[in-house]
Write a structure and sequence with these properties.
The chain is built from eight helices and 19 strands. It is an alpha+beta fold. The termini are far apart.
Length: 377
């Protein structure tokens, strides 16, 4: 058992004052819930929720060859990202296995000049991503910097979030598109304001100095009081992303899977110039997926009340046809739901006879298309 002490975010005292149930997540002591996770989930779907995401890993990449380095190190075409925009991508091993899924923000820089990027990795993989980027930077005129301690990250998510944030900033939120970010001031705090999130709702992620985190949290809490904003923990974040069909590293994404195995081959950009780590293996994976389609990530909705969990077998016709990757009760649907990789022959929505082996009992499930929930825009 590891004796490494848990890390604490700049908002640790706030969480404890609010009576949060804390949990070890990727070496961080994080709020799991403050009260009812169902109430927190519903608040995000109908009003707004406030999250501390300061455990995420920020890595800064700068220099004349920053774009070239990221195009070499990642599977996406990062050189085409305009200043002020962000892109979802992945970093893979040479064998094509997924090391992590990432969001890369281009903060500044002209097409020809030095550029400034921020790579945001999952907390559990931040060190792995940092090490890989540092190693892959050899020979590039670019600097990779560990900025995990330079930022706290707060997220306000839900239909009321634009109004709440607008009360605290004069930044042009109406002009801020999805997967874009701009520098601004929120409640007097300098911030990178990003229109990104992991809940399936409209919302914003605010990167600030750790010393400003508590001030910003309290300002958002005050501005959101009349709108029904509540503090939210990691538990409802998981059910929100599950309903929205968003993959979680370690569940839907692993080093044993390529992006093509995960149904996310679209993030791999073979058309970009030059070689990139994993290109040859990923080209083989793409061809293999055409000739022999891999298992497909689908949604499963329970006909009963028993909740499927990661690792449970999906069955049909008396044999195993897949495996659950994530499962939980869905507050929005009112039923247990799961994501699972299943054989292509059983992947079509409405496929009959599919069940999940829950402790020896084959519970019936309906196969549905992902996501389970999509907000009305």
């Amino acid at each position: 058992m590891s004796s490494t002490p848990l890390r604490h975010t700049a908002l640790d005292a706030v969480h404890r004052a609010l009576g949060a149930t804390m949990t070890d997540f990727a070496g961080w002591d994080m709020p799991l819930r403050y009260g009812s996770e169902r109430d927190e989930h519903t608040a995000v779907r109908t009003r707004a929720g406030l999250f501390d995401l300061s455990h995420m890993g920020e890595i800064t990449v700068t220099g004349p060859a920053a774009a070239a380095l990221l195009d070499h190190a990642l599977v996406g075409n990062i050189g085409t990202v305009k200043p002020g925009r962000a892109r979802y991508t992945m970093i893979c091993r040479a064998d094509g296995g997924i090391l992590d899924d990432l969001i890369v923000y281009r903060l500044s820089g002209t097409e020809a000049g030095s550029a400034h990027y921020m790579v945001v990795a999952n907390a559990s993989n931040a060190e792995v991503v940092l090490d890989a980027l540092t190693e892959r930077a050899a020979g590039f005129d670019a600097e990779v910097r560990d900025d995990r301690d330079a930022y706290a990250l707060l997220a306000v998510q839900g239909p009321a979030s634009p109004g709440i944030l607008a009360a605290l900033t004069d930044a042009d939120l109406d002009g801020l598109k999805y997967y874009a970010g701009l520098p601004g001031t929120v409640a007097g705090v300098p911030a990178l304001i990003a229109r990104t999130g992991y809940t399936g709702e409209d919302g914003f992620e605010l990167f600030v100095a750790p010393a400003d985190a508590e001030r910003l949290w309290q300002a958002l809490t005050g501005a959101g009081a009349d709108a029904g904003l509540v503090p939210c923990g990691l538990s409802c974040r998981d059910t929100l992303r599950l309903e929205a069909g968003m993959p979680l590293y370690g569940h839907e994404l692993t080093t044993a899977l390529t992006p093509f195995d995960a149904g996310l081959g679209r993030v791999v950009k073979f058309e970009k110039e030059g070689d990139f780590v994993g290109r040859a293996a990923l080209a083989e994976a793409a061809a293999r997926a055409q000739d022999n389609p891999p298992r497909v990530l689908v949604g499963l909705v329970a006909e009963g009340r028993r909740v499927p969990r990661a690792g449970y077998a999906v069955v049909a016709d008396g044999r195993v046809i897949g495996e659950v990757t994530s499962g939980a009760p869905s507050p929005t649907l009112g039923k247990p739901i799961a994501m699972a990789y299943v054989d292509p022959a059983h992947a079509a929505p409405g496929t009959a006879g599919v069940g999940v082996d829950i402790r020896g009992s084959h519970e019936p499930y309906e196969v549905v298309a992902l996501p389970f929930y999509q907000r009305q825009k």
